[in-house]
Design a protein that fits this description.
Number of domains: 1
Radius of gyration: 12 Å
Number of helices: 5
Number of strands: 3
Strand order of the largest sheet: 1-2-3
CATH superfamily: lambda repressor-like DNA-binding domains
Largest sheet: 3 strands, antiparallel
CATH architecture: Orthogonal Bundle
Distance between the termini: 28 Å
CATH class: Mainly Alpha
Helix content: 55-70%
Order of helices and strands: EEHHHEHH
Structural class: alpha+beta
Strand content: 5-15%
């Protein structure tokens, strides 16, 4: 785990969490995925992904945060296994 992985991606609350768009971009790129591929992996539109990745803080529903966390985990595991972003979409 690098020092950058200790930068919080979310701040916690009951139903909503605050997402750091800049940090989301950094982590997605570290997994080797385009915004379009990551959006497909999460099950939402590329335009919504673009909104989430703006360099701001966003209040998002907890379920959206869980989806992002799971997609990053799957992407990281695939990266370790040697898969590419294109293979993750299928």
């Amino acid at each position: 785990m690098s020092n950058n992985d200790r930068i919080p991606l979310f701040s916690r609350s009951r139903l909503h969490q605050t997402l750091d768009g800049t940090e989301l971009v950094r982590r997605r790129e570290a997994c080797g995925l385009t915004a379009k591929a990551f959006a497909a992996l999460c099950g939402w539109s590329p335009s919504y992904q673009c909104k989430l990745e703006r360099p701001e803080f966003w209040e998002i529903h907890r379920n959206t945060a869980i989806t992002i966390e799971m997609a990053l985990k799957v992407s990281r595991q695939a990266l370790i296994a040697g898969q590419t972003g294109n293979e993750l979409k299928s």
